[in-house]
Amino acid sequence: MLKAFTSTLVLLAASIAAAAQPAPVTFDSTAKVFRIDGGGSSYVFGVNARGELQQIYWGGRLAKTDSFPQARTMPEWASFDSSYTNTPEEYVGWGSGLYMEPALKVTFADGNRDLELHYLSHTTVANGFDVVLKDIGRPVYVTLHYTIEPETGILARSATIENRGATAFTIDQAAAAAWALPAGHYTLNYLTGRWAGEWTLNQEAVHAGARVIESRRGSTGHQANPWFALQAGASDEEHGEVWFGALAWSGSWRITVEQDQLDAVRVTGGFNPFDFGFVLHPGESLETPAFYGGYSAHGLGGASRLLHRFENAHILPRTGAKTETAAAPRPRPVIYNSWEATEFRVDEGGQIALAERAAALGVDRFVMDDGWFGQRKDDHAGLGDWYVNKEKFPNGLKPLIDKVHGLGMDFGLWVEPEMVNPDSDLYRKHPEWVLSFPGRPRMEQRNQLILNLARPDVRAYVLGFLDKILTENDIAFLKWDYNRNWSEPGWDQLPPVEQKRVYVDYTRSLYTILSELRRKHPKVEIESCSGGGGRVDLGILRYVDEVWPSDNTDPFDRLTQQDGFTYAYTPQIMMAWVTDSPHGINRRINSLSYAMLSSMQGSLGIGANIVAWKPDEMALVKRLIAAYKQVQATIVQGDLYRLISPLNGSEFSATQTVNSDKSQSAVFAFIHSTQEGRGFPILKLKGLDAKAVYTLSSIEGKARAGTPETASGAWWMNHGLEMDDDFRGDLQAAAFRLDRK
Ligand code: GLA
User: Fold this and answer.
1) Is 325 inside any structural domain?
2) 311 with 343, same domain?
3) Burial group, residue 19, by CB count within 10 angstroms (0-12, 13-18, 19+)
4) In this predicted structure, what is the pLDDT of residue 18?
5) What is the pLDDT of residue 322?
6) Residue 327 has what pLDDT?
7) How many domains would you assign to the chain?
8) Which residues line ligand 1 (CB under 6 A)?
9) Residue environment code for 303-327, b if the CB has 16+ CB neighbours within 10 A, otherwise e
10) pLDDT at res. 290
11) Do 621 and 693 lie in a common domain?
12) Is 37 noted as a catalytic residue in this protein?
């Protein structure tokens, strides 16, 4: 009875919401204009007089009554830039003197390479459209998929390219989508890095010409991440217009941001055309990845809050959540990981000693890292041989797993399924399984080669051994690693013209393995790691619950990395371990509480050699883990405000998060080095309910003497939170929580 009543209420609420909201998608058949509304944005495109699908408007949400005339093509600019190249099409084929980045470029069997896509038909789908384009002469059909997420207004775009003819053609280049903005002054934001130095935010004025961000590495890469944000004019962290996008693809990708000859901007992204070539036989189709795009009128902070909400609500899996339709994934268990403590020297006794300590700290999950399998003593051997090493674990993994369970934690295991060491039984048996150009020298970075996952037999092998490990052992979590990039992407079992499809098939196979594994083992959670943050994108995030942002766990470096990371990705997935000081990467000395507070800004883990910790260190970490758990959901799934960015050598930094009903907020403040006696700036908090009353409590550190224990949201936002006068020095940290009374 109660259930029936609840569902009636839900239906009622839904119908009220539907009545209040204008229909999110409309097609004006007279003007041939498509309009999609969601959240605070509207996206409008239409069929122009030539029959091309042209972008018309992308920005703040318009009134329901507003309408647009038919799309007007841009004029030609003398005899050098035709109207065709000046007009921003939704998905433009290369032909007719197009000098801008094409969305699609093909080579036909007769050598013809001209492609002009015109509107053919469309269907309305839930929250969007499928629009079919066709070449003016040849049977190349492209269906453009549009779906908007009604709350955030984030639009998913992708394309399906079909060959409905009788002869094969080759796709030389295929984007997922192109976005366009009118002539103006813009600042481009994008993320770059390197191993142990991921997540650097770059901000630069957009000038004439193209800025290419990409990976040619076969995977997402540490060096650039498939995300961009364009700010208009004076837009900053909290104000002004921002258009942003993220590509859901974990293989080689490219995003080209170009300002054209008339100062307009286009952003085209999808499969990286470098070394690309996909033969489409009669009747076949190629589906591109999705390119998500969104708009915020509240600066970069507003843009990232939309992305975080969208990722939590619509991208991440729901492993372990109460229902598949839970509003958000469950906050990550606090983990312990053995890597920095033991490296490859894992064995039953050593791991049990660490597990006992971890349990005493209040850790939820114990993860054994590299070294447990095959003949793995260092990184020269073992990858590919996924049997338990008998010298290290004479009785298999069961005694360790049972012990971990007995201590009240669940158990996780490191794997690197896509790799093989030449010194392994697997490679000796199947040397033909690796990506290579036979007869040519090959790179063996970290002494390993890449299994060609695109091959059905390799895919079956990888899925098979992972399924076996998970079936035979009570394992809650896999840390899925990937420690090198492609160098010789050969697949010589296929005819030469077909071999380049490896760029598509490999990544698709990876997704298939992950989804099949999740289907068979629905409770198992997975982390995407690639020597740190080398494989983080909205494609892999459909299949994994968290990521490892960097092998650099220096807590000061992590502040800037975490700042960069959160422009594109939610703190929910941002694992952050506390490790020993000095950390090898910078040899910098920091306190344990500083390291704890740095990691508590994301999903907390411990990765230190905790058997060596003294009682006071154990007590401090135990206390802070308990305090973290009380505010974790707010920190990792709330609205994030970057109050003071640690970028550009800032001596201070601070973040604040507020949960969705504004009943709780968490604040973190960090000092790099106090200079000239400067005190910490007053933190004017954001996002609180001005009228509500909040109680301030310390997680670590003190507020300034005289700070009220309770005050209104208006007080905390307008007067602000002041740090204690003694909050000075090098590498200092403080954290607070506010709870609505
Ligand atoms: C990669 C990961 C590390 C660790 C090692 C193990 O570098 O990023 O966290 O798992 O591999 O070899």
Assistant:
1) no
2) no
3) exposed
4) 40
5) 67
6) 84
7) 3
8) 339, 369-370, 414, 481, 483, 529, 531-532, 548, 551
9) bbbbbbbbbbbebbbbbbeeeeeee
10) 98
11) no
12) no
Alpha carbon distance 34, 471 (integer Å): 50
Average confidence (pLDDT) per 10 residues, the chain, 741 residues: 34 38 82 98 98 98 96 96 97 95 98 98 97 98 98 98 98 98 98 98 98 98 98 96 98 98 97 98 98 98 98 93 79 97 97 98 98 97 98 98 98 98 98 97 96 98 98 98 98 96 98 98 98 98 98 98 98 98 95 98 98 98 98 98 95 98 98 96 98 98 98 98 97 98 96
Residue 77: inside a domain, yes or no?
yes
Q: What CATH number is associated with residue 136?
A: 2.70.98.60
pTM summary value? 0.96
Sign of the alpha-carbon torsion through 16, 21, 25, 26: positive
* 735 membership: H or E segment, kind and range: strand 730-740
Best of 222, 342, 370 for a ligand 1 pocket test (most atoms within 8 Å of beta carbon): 370
Q: What pLDDT was estimated at residue 326?
A: 80
**Of 282, 315, 348, which one is at a domain's C-terminal end?**
315
- Residue identifier of the C-alpha nearest atom 3 of ligand 1: 531
Residue 632 shares a structural domain with residue 731? no
Nearest Cα residue to atom 7 of ligand 1: 531
Single out the catalytic residue among 385, 410, 551, 563.
Answer: 551
Same-domain status, 6 and 143: yes
Atom from ligand 1 closest to the CA of residue 529: 8
Is position 236 annotated as part of the catalytic site? Answer: no
Helix (H, G, I), strand (E, B) or coil at 319: coil
Which CATH number do you get for residue 699? Answer: 2.60.40.1180
pLDDT value at residue 324: 66
Question: Sheet of 652-658: strands edge to edge?
Answer: 639-644, 652-658, 664-673, 730-740, 693-700, 710-712
Domain that holds residue 523: 335-638
Atom of ligand 1 nearest to the CA of 379: 12
- Concatenate the DSSP letters of all residues of 166-231 into one string: SS-EEEEEEEEEEEEE-SS-EEEEEEE--TT---EEEEEE--SEEEEEEE-SSS--SSEEEEEEEE
